[in-house]
Design a protein that fits this description.
The chain has 153 residues and is mostly helical. The chain has six helices and no strands. The relative contact order is 0.17. Helix 2 runs parallel beside helix 4, helix 3 runs antiparallel to helix 4 and helix 4 packs antiparallel against helix 5. It has one domain. Helices cover 80% and strands 0% of the residues. The radius of gyration is 19 Å and the shape is elongated.
Amino acid sequence: MSKTQTNTATPLRIHWLICFAAILGLMVYNVACHLWLQDHRLALDESQRILIRSIFYLLAIALFPFTKLVRHILLRLNQTMPGDDSSRARYLKTIIVTQALIGINGLFGLVMFYLGDDYNTLYIFSLLAAVGLALHRPQADEYAAIVHSRRVD
């Protein structure tokens, strides 16, 4: 198979690798909390943790529509902005930004665990991040729309 055939057969391979790396990062957070961070946690007062946890929940809830809005804007910019970047490179930037934004939810769980919260808070934030990562995965129809609108690859 020639290089061009390989590229058109799997145009979103690197995009999916970014998603798998984000999910792997979530797994590493959880394993690290179980194996190493358990002995190094802070004993923050419960009232302070409740306040921080509530703020993190509000931020996590707000991150979902915000990330969707950012993704929508980036997709439209990918279709309309002039430039020499390929459609694949433009879509890769969109995937990286949205995966990074929604992956912040997993960090909230890690921070709360470090501050002294239980595993359930870690799991809740990790699952929120995993759902967000799944929602903002690469989609062939979005990529096809970028390619079609630019008529260049």
